[in-house]
Structures are given as structure tokens and as C-alpha cells.
Task: structure prediction
Amino acid sequence: MDIQNLLDEGKRIVKSYGCFFADTFVEQRKLYTSFVIGTSLLCILLAEISQANSFRGWYYNLINKDIINKSVEYADGDKSGQYGSFLTYYRYNAFGASNPEEVDVNAPMVALTFDDGPNPEYTNRILTVLTENYSHATFFVVGTNAEKYPDILQKIVLSGNEIGNHTYSHANLTDIDSAEVEEEIDKVNRIVKKSTGEITTVIRPPYGAYNDEVLNQLQQPVVLWDLDTEDWDSRNAQTIVENIITNIDDGDIILMHDIYESTAEAVELLVPRLKEMGFQVVSVGKMTEYKGKELELHKAYGGVK
Ligand code: ZN
Result:
């Protein structure tokens, strides 16, 4: 099987099933045609033609870098089952030439953060554009929404993003007593733990409101922001993007809300634009790690500089 045949076959499959033919690359001295699939944001399918009118697939988990489902045979024309997963288009850059997930710790980076979700429509749109661009973010979820959408919580974690705690009921922590503060935080942790097996790593108090008492009580670092997009106010994607582009700086933590359509739209424009400008888009936890810093308990952080 030569390269041209593989390419032709890849194009044929794309045409038939609507997936995006990405590239060919060599691994372990075998040539694979790669596709980005739609059922999971985590996987690409490495396909190899085993015989005429059929091809073999392996699911490759981009996060764990391991093959999670081996040697599935697909007959040509079989549109049932796994073929259904080919329907979504995902952009895919230069796999094999370099690891697109690799972060250059010496290059500029920013953290995107989203408050008040998850939202079934907009959080999903944001996760898709992040994944398409090998980018990540921190989602500060509100408990009342989090308990409604355990599947989105799972998707956030599985696609390599971070979940932060934004309290159960979006409470102003300076207005309630310490028992209530504990309840507001713990309830979210229980919901997230139940859905994802993990607990939140950072806390963002609603309205950015905290005092020394609250800060001393909280058992995770407080993460605020240093670039407020005011997306809730403008509700205009272009305005949000311009605001960020003109003010962005290495180490910034950007505040947005994944409960507005205009914000989802803004993120779709913003993430590719930031990458063009040379910024890597990461979660707060990762940015801290990459910059060799540590978020300390009983402290509040704007950016990571
Ligand atoms: Zn909020």
C-alpha cells in the first residue's frame, strides 16, 4: 500500500462519512491515515486499510497517549455503530511532526476561566474549540448547575481541563457565616467528586468577594482574575475579543462566563487568534505549574506573573 493509495482512501472515507481527513504519519514504521472523530473529544482514529473496501481502526487517546480500542474492522458502507462518530469536524494540526499538546514553558501563556456554568450548550461549544486548538481552561462551576450536568463535568475533566469551585448557590461568602461557607464549598466538591472522581483544585468566590476570615477558612487557594472581559455586560463577541486582544499579557487570568452565547462565540474567535499571537492557552493550575509557581493556601491570586 503506497502513500497515494492511503491518501486516496482517506479522502474517499471522508467523502462517504463526512469526517475530516487529517494527515498521514508514521509510527513504529507503519504508515497510518489519521482522522479526528466526533464521539469523543479525546480521540483520533488511526486507520489502516487492511483490505479493499474495509479499514482497520485504533482509537488513540490524546491525553493518555495510549491505544484504547484496537483492531476494529469496518466494512465499507457500514454506516452504523462506530461510523456515526465520524460526523464531526475537528481541526487537526501537524500530528507527528511535533506533539501539539506540548507546552513551551518559556513562551507566553494565558489562562482562560469560565464562571457560573456548566451550561449544556455553551460549555460544550467552548470545550470543542479548546480541544480543536489543543488549548485548556478552568471552569469555575456553580453547584446548582454542576449537579444538573454531570456529563459536562466529566467532559471538562476528560478533555484535560480544570474544574474550580464557584460555590453551590453563587453565594457572597462575605455575607454568610463560616458554617454556611463550608457548606457552599463542600457541596460543590461532593458533586464534582461524584461525577468525575476528582475534587476542585481552586476556589473563585462569587463577585470576587472575600475577606481575611473567608480566606483563612477556605482550604484551597483563591483564584481571581486580572483581565475582566465584562462579557456579561456587552454580550457581544467582537467586543469581548477586542477587549482581550488589546489588553492581554503573559500570565494573565481572563474572566468569562460560559452561560452566554456571545461568550461561546467570542471564545471560538479568540482561541485561534491568541494562538496566532503566540499565546498558549492553558488552565490556571497548569499555568502555575509551567511557570514554576505554586498557589498557596489562604492567598488570592489575580494572574500568575
Ligand atoms: Zn459568578
Notes: The first strand starts at residue 20 and ends at 27. Confidence is low (pLDDT under 50) at residues 9-99.
